[in-house]
UniProtKB/TrEMBL annotation:
<dbReference type="Pfam" id="PF24654">
    <property type="entry name" value="CEP76_N"/>
</dbReference>
<feature type="domain" description="CEP76 N-terminal">
    <location>
        <begin position="10"/>
        <end position="69"/>
    </location>
</feature>
<dbReference type="GO" id="GO:0046599">
    <property type="term" value="P:regulation of centriole replication"/>
</dbReference>
<dbReference type="GO" id="GO:0005814">
    <property type="term" value="C:centriole"/>
</dbReference>
<dbReference type="InterPro" id="IPR038765">
    <property type="entry name" value="Papain-like_cys_pep_sf"/>
</dbReference>
<dbReference type="Pfam" id="PF24656">
    <property type="entry name" value="CEPT76_peptidase"/>
</dbReference>
<keyword id="KW-0206">Cytoskeleton</keyword>
<dbReference type="InterPro" id="IPR028926">
    <property type="entry name" value="CEP76-C2"/>
</dbReference>
<feature type="domain" description="Centrosomal protein of 76 kDa C-terminal">
    <location>
        <begin position="523"/>
        <end position="660"/>
    </location>
</feature>
<comment type="function">
    <text>Centrosomal protein involved in regulation of centriole duplication. Required to limit centriole duplication to once per cell cycle by preventing centriole reduplication.</text>
</comment>
<keyword id="KW-0963">Cytoplasm</keyword>
<feature type="domain" description="CEP76 C2">
    <location>
        <begin position="103"/>
        <end position="260"/>
    </location>
</feature>
<dbReference type="InterPro" id="IPR056289">
    <property type="entry name" value="CEP76_N"/>
</dbReference>
<dbReference type="InterPro" id="IPR052299">
    <property type="entry name" value="CEP76"/>
</dbReference>
<dbReference type="InterPro" id="IPR056290">
    <property type="entry name" value="CEPT76/DRC7_peptidase-like_dom"/>
</dbReference>
<dbReference type="Pfam" id="PF24652">
    <property type="entry name" value="CEP76_C"/>
</dbReference>
<comment type="similarity">
    <text>Belongs to the CEP76 family.</text>
</comment>
Amino acid sequence: MSLPPEKASELKQIIHQQLVKMDVHGRIREVLAETIREELAPEHQQLSTEDLIKALRQRGIVDEVMKELKFVTDVNDKERTSAPPKPSTHFVDREPPVLKKTNIDPTRRYLYLQVLGGKAFLEHLQEPEPLPGQICSTFTLCLHFRNQRFRSKPVPCACEPDFHDGFLLEVHKDSLGDGSKMVDATTMLSISDPVHMVLIKTDTFGETTLVASYFLEWRSVLAAENGVTNIAVELLGVGTESKVSVGILNIRLEMYPQLNKMLSPEITKTQFSLERQKTAEKERLFLVYAKQWWREYLQIRPTHNVRLVKIFAQDENGINHPVCSYIRPLRAGRLLDTPRQAARFVSVMGYERAPVIGGGGGKQEQWCTLLAFLCRNKGDCEDHANLLCSLLLGYGLEAFVCVGTKAKGVPHTWVMTCGTDGTITFWESLTGHRYMHRPISPDDPPLAEQPKPLYPYRTIGCVFNHQKFLGNCQPSDAVEVCVFDLQDESKWKPMSGEAIKSVCSPGTISSVPPFPPLCASTIDAAITSNEIELQLRILVSEHRKDLGLSTVWDDQLSYLLSPALAAYELERTTSISAGNEEFQDAVRRAVPDGHTFKGFPIHFVYRNARRAFATCLRSPFCEEIICCRGDQVRLAVRVRVFTYPESACAVWIMFACKYRSVL
C-alpha cells in the first residue's frame, strides 16, 4: 500500500518521536560498543548491519521497540480472546466502547470530515472545568449527508469545546445507474446537497436545547490543493438569535481516495453562483405567484384576511420556506410497521413551544428542519404535524397538514387523511388520537340530529402536503361545518401544482435540506426500566421516611403490574384494549381477603425519575398510594419503557399498594 507523501512523513515523525522517547539511539550505541569489544577479533574491524541487528535482537531491544510502536489492535481478536461469557441475566456492560475499524469500499469516493475543536463559545466563558466523573452539560454535533447520519461523542460545554471527531461520508450519485462507479470531481460538483450540521446542548438533567443549525458547502475541497482544506465555520443561533454568533468550529475536509485532477477555484465559484441564481429566480417567481394567489383569495370574501392561510414559514435559522417544502413522503424502513404506530412514535417526541425572550405571550414561530427536530427529540406542534404527515404519505395515504385553531382561538396544526370512500380522519400529532369528521349541515331543520364533534379543533384556514396547497374558501371556516371535498374549487382554492413543484420537489436545487432517514433507538428498554424503577423505589422510601413511615416492597405485586402497562401502551398504539381480565384476576389472587388494593398508572415521554416522581406527587390519587398508612402496608412500583426510533420512548409507571382495611 502506497502512502501519500505527507502521510509518510507524518508516520516517520511519529516513529522518530517514539524512538527518542525510548532512548533507542543511546542503547544501540551501548550494544555496538559492547559487540565490538566482546565479539570481534582485533583483525576484524568491520561490522555488518546483519551482525548489529542480530545483537540487538538477542538483547530484546527490537521486540521492545515493535511492542511500543504497535498502533492498531484487532478489536475482534481481542474480543474473541478476552471477553468472558455473558451470564444469562440482563446486565449493562459498563466498559467504554472500543472504536472499530471502518470498512472502506475502494471503488467509492469518500469525504472525510474532521471536527478539530471549537472556539469562541462565549456563553460558556465562565464555565468551570468539570471534575473527573462529574456530570456536566455537553455539546453533541449531529450530521446528515445524502441519507447518512452521524453523531459526535458528547463533549463538556466550554468556551473552547474539545471536539475531536472524524466522519467518513460516502459521496455517491444516485442517478449514475452504475453504483460502483468512482465519481470524479466534475460529477461531484453537480451534487448540491450540503452537509447539514446540528449542534445540540444536553444539560445535567438530560434536557436538550438546539444551539445551532448549519449547512456546510463541502465542494470547496474539490478545488483545494492536495485535496485537503481547513474551514473555520461560524455557527449562528436559532430562532430569535439567528443573527447572533454562538461559536466557531474548525473543520478539515479531505477526499479519499485523492482526486487525480483537481478543479480550479473559478469553476467551483461559478457553479455556486449559478446555483444561487437559479434558486433565487425560482423562489422569486414562486413569491410573485403566491402574492397573486393571495390577492385572488382575498377578493372571494373580505373576511378571508383573518383566516389562518399559511403559505410561508420560518425555519430555525429564520429563513422563509414555502410550507409545502416541510413535507415529503418518508419511509421508516423496518422501524415502524403501521400508520398508527407512526402516530404513536410522533406523539412520544417531546412537545415544547419555541422559546421567546421576554413577555407578551406572543407565539414565536419556528418550523424546524427534520434533522433539528429529530436530534433535539422535541419540538412544536408544527414539527410533529409535519413529521406525521410525511410518515403517513410514506405509508401510501393521502395526508395533509391542517392549519387552524383550537379552543379560545389558539393557533394549531394537525394532520388529516382522506380515504378513497371520502372518509375524513383527523390525527392529533401531539397525542396520537384519531377523530372521524362528519360535517354538520347548517341547512338542516333545528330538530334534525347532528353529529357531535369529538375533536378539539375549531377553525381551519388551509391544508397542504408536498404537492398541494388549498385555501379554505367556504362561507364559514368552522371545522364542524367544513366539507372536505378538496376537488371542489368553490370550497377549496388550490395553488398551481407546477408552482409548488418548482420550489418544493426533492429533485430541484432548493434551499430546503433533504430529509434524513430515521435511526433505530439506542436505548435499552430493559436496562432503562430497571434503572428508573430503582430510582423511584429510593425516592418513595425517602419520602415515606420523612413522614415517619416505613416502606416494605412487594416484588411479586410489582411484577404483576407489568401486563397492565403493556396493555396501556398497546391501547395507545392500536386503540385496542386487551389483557385486562388476566391482570384483574392476578391482582385478586395476590390481595388477601380483608385487604385493599390501589393502583395508579401514569405516562411520561422523558426518562428523568426525579421529575416524574414530583409530577406523580401532584396527583392526590398517587400521593394517597405513596403515603399510604394502615396495617400490613405493602408497596409496589413497576416501570416499563417502550422504545421508538430516534431517542423517543414512552415511559409507563404504575404505583400500587395493598393493606389491611381497619375501620
